[in-house]
């Protein structure tokens, strides 16, 4: 299963993402379940980070727990192979002024995405 979300800040502002919880199926190559964060309006934009429960990043490194875009857009791409059920991830976003770095329009948006085990057989 794949999900893509693009977040667009109002004119003159940037996007701030804060990962508040993450529990995904771990694989050393981030192949099973992962969340990719892109700087821009699509998955062809610059990749900022891949979150995939790497034990070396538990808890998530502070520099990637909160990410602030340089422009108006951030895109999130979530992939799960649906083989092992885990808690998933939870994040919050807000908008900030580009010039002063102060966060305004602190929106009460967050989402919790849970990975679920699929009931299918692969042949």
UniProtKB/TrEMBL annotation:
Keywords for the protein's UniProt record, in alphabetical order: Disulfide bond, Repeat
Domain CUB per the UniProt entry, residue ranges: 1-96
InterPro entries xref list: CUB_dom (IPR000859), Sperma_CUB_dom_sf (IPR035914)
Keyword Disulfide bond attached: yes
UniProt keyword Cell cycle, yes or no: no
Gene3D superfamilies, alphabetized: Spermadhesin, CUB domain
Protein name, as recorded: CUB domain-containing protein
């Amino acid at each position: 299963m794949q999900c893509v979300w693009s977040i667009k800040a109002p004119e003159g502002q940037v996007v701030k993402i804060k990962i508040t919880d993450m529990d995904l199926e771990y694989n050393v190559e981030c192949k099973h379940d992962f969340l990719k964060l892109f700087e821009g309006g699509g998955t062809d934009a610059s990749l900022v980070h891949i979150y995939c429960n790497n034990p070396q990043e538990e808890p998530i490194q502070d520099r990637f727990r909160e990410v602030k875009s340089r422009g108006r857009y951030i895109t999130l791409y979530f992939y799960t192979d649906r083989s092992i059920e885990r808690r998933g991830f939870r994040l919050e976003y807000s908008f900030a002024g580009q010039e002063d770095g102060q966060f305004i329009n602190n929106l009460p948006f967050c989402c919790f995405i849970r990975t679920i085990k699929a009931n299918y057989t692969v042949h």
